[in-house]
Amino acid sequence: MISIKEVAKAAGVSTSTVSRVINNSPSISQSTKDKVWAVIKKLNYSPNNIAKALITNKSYTIALLIDVDDDKSFQNPFFYEVIHGIEKSCQEKEFSLMVANVNTKMKKQDIISWLVKSKRAEGIVLPVSILTRELVKELKDMGIPFVAVGEVDSIQDNVSWVDIDNKKGTEKAVYYLYEQGLKDIAFIGYDSTKDFSKRRVEGFKSAIEKIGISNNDSWIISCNNSKEQGYKEMMKLIDSGKMPQAVICGNDSLSVGVIKAIQDKDLKIPEDISVISFDSRQIASLMYPEVTTVDVDVFEMGYQSAKMLFDLIENNNLTDQGLLISTKIIKRNTTK
Fold first, then answer.
1. How far is CA 37 from the centre of its chain?
2. In the chain, which ranges are continuous DSSP H helix?
3. Is the Cβ–Cβ distance between 200 and 165 less than 8 Å?
4. What residues contact residue 265 under an 8 Å CB cut-off, 6+ apart?
5. 124-127 and 146-149 as β-strands: parallel, antiparallel, unpaired?
6. Residue 193: what pLDDT?
7. Residue 153: closest CA among 205, 193, 184
8. Closest CA to 184 of 244, 131, 133, 239
9. Contact between residue 84 and residue 46 where contact means Cβ atoms under 8 Å apart
10. pLDDT at 53 over 60
11. What is the DSSP letter of 231?
12. How large is the C-alpha radius of gyration of the chain?
């Protein structure tokens, strides 16, 4: 195995210069960096992360904080897509990703104190669901960079975050249906306890208002995000005698129930009722008919969360910011 001393000798520089080049130090000229990297490539040298950590006093690790008692998160396939995106960003930065339970105690310390004081992580990514005012204060007081996955409300000042643009996603869905001549549109799956659901309904109301559709609030339906609820609420809509021309579903499970209800009533999709669903990338093409979706790129949300964290790690003078990931309509067979 090639050592850093052999690289330094071949490049005609000191080992400390090689180390600074590897860590992209601004004190090294670009010409020296180019020369050293050429030798590294020629000799096929692979820096030892443990050695790098000892030299630079860095862990080359970021932590993802989770709550292991939150069963719903682990049952959600999008949770793992977020982790995939974070891991991809770590790979590009040659960092490792540590997953830690926010409720764990390490040597009588809470996990955050342990991560910071023992220099186990350079920064933290965490879901907004576990972010509290007290936790924000603790992280700020310790001076560790962190980024929330999910939009942070106005109560949490000075926090960097990344989320899907849920409001714009529903607006796009309404405009798309309206362009097909559909005006009677329902939204199934409103959950007032979830910020992302609130944003989607805000987008629904905003688009309805902007294009001047007369739509009553009874077509914004609150329910659990399950197949059974989708079926039940769609049946009620059809039986009400005021059936919508189109339905926007809050998630993929709801859309399964909604489509089954329409089919059980011997109605045709999309001829009688069009259907668009959020969050259906995983199963949309496996259903019959294949579901038109508001594509939610949670991989990109994870990737951008980690990227934002690395920016904060590399420049602690950056101001906190929020980033919304755009959505797009993927047209399939449940719309005309």
1. 34
2. 4-11, 15-22, 30-43, 49-56, 71-75, 77-93, 111-117, 133-142, 166-179, 195-210, 227-239, 252-264, 298-314
3. no
4. 235, 238
5. parallel
6. 86
7. 193
8. 244
9. no
10. no
11. H
12. 25
Over 13-77, what HEC string results?
CCHHHHHHHHCCCCCCCHHHHHHHHHHHHHHCCCCCHHHHHHHHCCCCEEEEEECCCCHHHHHCH
Q: How far apart are CA 272 and CA 265, in angstroms?
A: 11
Distance CA 153, CA 35 (A): 48
The pLDDT of residue 59: 75
CATH architecture of 61-164+300-326: 3-Layer(aba) Sandwich (3.40)
The DSSP output letter for 318 is P
pLDDT tens per residue across span 102-161: 877 655 568 888 888 778 899 999 998 888 888 888 888 888 999 999 988 755 668 999
Query: 4-56 falls under which CATH superfamily?
Result: lambda repressor-like DNA-binding domains (1.10.260.40)
Token code pair at residue 181? 């001549």
Residue 266: both structure tokens together? 């011997």
Looking up tokens 């995000």, which residue turns up? 225
**pLDDT, mean over the chain:** 87
